[in-house]
Design brief:
single chain; alpha/beta; 3-stranded parallel beta sheet; two-stranded antiparallel sheet; 3 helices; 28% helix; 22% strand; globular
Length: 108
């Protein structure tokens, strides 16, 4: 059984940012999500963010976009690359059933 210093439930921008900061601090993080990476962004079609790219950045990685505001596709690519860049350990399509010091998940 693997041991982790921190488990982030949810592979959205906040879960990824938390895991990245934990990894940068020398910890071993795990990110679990019941769906795909950044599912809440991926299910919305034709989305353009209201904020500038700088406010969406995580892990000191620049978010470069073609216009003033990033699109859904640009954000998804960015967050996937951030997870890849930091070699985050991801368990996608697994539902967390219980957290009590040990962890039990159910793969979809």
């Amino acid at each position: 059984m693997d041991t982790y210093d921190i488990v982030c439930i949810g592979a959205g921008p906040t879960g990824l940012a938390t895991a990245i900061e934990a990894k940068r601090a020398g910890m071993r993080p795990l990110v679990i999500d019941k769906a795909c990476l950044c599912n809440s962004i991926s299910i919305i079609r034709e989305h353009v963010f209201f904020t500038t790219p700088e406010l969406l950045e995580i892990g000191d990685l620049p978010l470069v976009c073609s216009t003033e505001k990033p699109t859904r596709v640009e954000a998804l690519k960015y967050y996937r690359k951030a997870a890849e860049h930091y070699a985050l350990e991801l368990r996608l399509y697994e539902r967390v059933l219980r957290v009590d010091g040990r962890m039990e998940t159910l793969r979809s």
